[in-house]
Write a structure and sequence with these properties.
Elements lengths: L1 H29 L9 H11 L6 E5 L6 E3 L4 E5 H5 L3 H18 L3 H29 L3 H38 L7 H38 L1
Parallel strand pairs: 1-3
Antiparallel strand pairs: 2-3
The structure holds zinc ion.
Zinc ion binds next to helix 4 and helix 6.
Amino acid sequence: MQNYFLLILLPMLLGLWAQFRVKSAFKRYSDEPVGSGRSGAETARDILSAAGIHDVEVAEINGMLGDHYDPTHKRLCLSSEVYNNASVAAVGIAAHEVGHAIQHAKAYWALQWRTSLVPVTMLASQLLPFVIFGGFFFHFTGLIKLGIVCYTALAVFQLITLPVEFDASRRAKIILQDMGIVRPGNEALGVNRVLDAAALTYVAAFVAALGNLVYLLLASRNRD
Ligand SMILES: [Zn+2]
């Protein structure tokens, strides 16, 4: 019970708190207009062309905070809020996603690792429900071992995601200042708050994956 609280519930609460912080930072700085007057999409295109990247498409997608860079199709997917608005939050997130496109163009080591781990991670997350169900309810020891392998894969993936995300935000903050898109003071502070809150969700995801792994390891040891 104590293990369950420490390793499963506590990381879950950290995750929820991180999500809440991202949403509130995003909401707050979505109302804050950015001095450049350029929308998230325009900002993304400005930064891409300044970085000499001309083969990445900037596209609008549905879904709040679903912004991401798709390296397979070289597409920067920005949610409508980010794509259309000239707010501090929008340009912060747009610049962060461009950060990933720059990582891709420069063959940044952590992004390459992360991309190559995607198929393994997808397989692991598809297997997990069956593995956990079979392992715990039907006591197939082999399945618990497979569960440990799956959670290890997920934890490694979340771990390698951290340098990718931190580096993209670091690049975004520097570029936004250097290109004069964001003014020092309140605007820069707002970008920092939005991006730092987003970074915390990735830390929480890693902690959750690690918690699950350790929990399963302890459970399988008690069973033996
Ligand atoms: Zn990112």
